[in-house]
Amino acid sequence: xxxxxxxxxxxxxxxxxxxxxxxxxxxxxxxxxxxxxxxxxxxxxxxxxxxxxxxxxxxxxxxxxxxxxxxxxxxxxxxxxxxxxxxxxxxxxxxxxxxxxxxxxxxx
Length: 108
Prior knowledge:
- The structure is a single chain.
- By secondary structure, this protein is an all-alpha fold.
- The protein has one domain.
- 91% of the residues lie in helices and 0% in strands.
- It has helices at 4-85, 89-104.
- The chain starts with a helix and ends with a helix.
């Protein structure tokens, strides 16, 4: 049989071992938590970068499309302006009268 002193010493040793295990578990959990937070931060930064790049691409494409459409409108307007410039004054006067009568709700 073991003496009371041996039993108490054994209990204290077991408690000390348990505390070391708990301490190691807390340290491991803290490291996992820290690593997880860092990974989340890295993924967030990567996603924000991807979003910024895609947004910039979309904006650039929209600007290109807008410029192309403006160029087309300018070409059409230039053609129309050139056509009107070459019309005889009588035809321009007739067209203006037609437009004014339509505005007033009348027809010629």
